[in-house]
């Protein structure tokens, strides 16, 4: 056989191999439309092909970024109470956390005691009327009433779930106000040393309950104080000293794997974490920075991420509510700014606020905070549960992007209002989420390119989302 003939045969075989692999290649598609007619529903699979047309969303497995820890929401006292007392508790928790029959939420933010959503009077774990520096009254007993049982159910349903803990206030006796409702943490060494011990005992006691704390934010919204519900100011220099001299060394002494996370407040104040991280002695104990959505824009955390690329980023809170009840508006905003926006700039989590609230945006006892917030699900007093738009926006990610996935490079077209993000799961499957964030009657046609194969999607409606999975 001549060399030319052999070369032609090899070329033909190669082309046929590509053709066969393309024809046999299919991708799953799950769709939610902005008009709410379709909600996280599986569509017909897309067959692989050559290029057809529209914007090309190229996906490159070789460009890998951060590991994903998970997607989820917060277990406030109100949410835990509703879940625990619902006669549909098992069904609701499966809808939220089951990886096969539900959306497989994989990360939970645990409120430590009181916040603006409490079904019982707000508390901490050392509520004494005197300065209890030896912490001999410390107890998580109130969490055992319904918070810990719900957490155990969650972990039973999905053992992959990890937990972040966040306090809204230190015990009143550690504050200048002597109340949970507002005030500032005392900065003297004996108070900070006791507060470090408070966290150590919390983690130990939860370990005794069989619950591991993956991450700990030192203070929810440390620049916010109000008399309406438990809050506490923790100035940046106090947070720095608390980490440097107290909680950092104590965690290291205990051998905890729990990561210390700073800030846990809005996008628009990067100066706070920059100041804390700027201290080398404190920096060595810090695992990362946490962010909320209530001020600034989705790119603001890049100031910190670019300055300290070795520190993790966590997105930890954003609430839906009656201020926006349009399904497509919320679906598009959450997908664009939180789930795509935050993971594209490095976040390892995207967490919403309450996992569950009732039909009256509660229950709320002895606090006055948000009166029109919406949970991921609503559990009404008459039974059952309603899946809100937050459930579906979470589902497009949590159901398919498993813990340990890596974000990988994908083309995105922000100016054209067609945005994307891509991940590679531990089993090597690729997940691509594409959102048409345009308003009106503007549809989008595009093709997703994975491993040399094109997956063509025509006329994605405005404010709509697809998740494409190539296994």
Q: What is the overall pLDDT average?
A: 95
N-end to C-end Cα span:
40 Å
Structural classification? alpha/beta
Parts with pLDDT < 50 across at least 5 consecutive residues: 10-21
- Tell me the β content: 25-35%
Number of strands: 25
Largest sheet: 10 strands, mixed
How would you summarize what this structure contains?
By secondary structure, the protein is α/β, with parallel strands linked by helices.
Descriptors:
471 residues, alpha/beta, 8-stranded parallel barrel, 11 helices, globular
Topology, pairings included?
Blueprint: H1 3-24, E1 26-32, E2 41-42, E3 46-47, E4 55-67, E5 70-75, H2 77-85, H3 89-97, E6 107-112, H4 143-157, E7 162-167, E8 181-184, H5 189-208, E9 215-217, E10 231-233, H6 236-254, E11 259-266, H7 271-277, H8 280-283, E12 286-292, H9 302-307, E13 312-317, E14 320-321, H10 327-344, E15 347-354, E16 356-357, E17 373-374, E18 377-378, E19 386-387, H11 389-398, E20 406-410, E21 418-424, E22 430-436, E23 444-450, E24 453-460, E25 464-470
Parallel strand pairs: 4-23, 5-6, 5-15, 6-7, 7-9, 8-10, 9-11, 11-12, 12-13, 13-15, 16-18
Antiparallel strand pairs: 1-2, 1-3, 1-25, 4-20, 14-17, 18-19, 20-21, 21-22, 22-25, 23-24
Helix pairs in contact: 2-4, 5-6, 6-7, 10-11
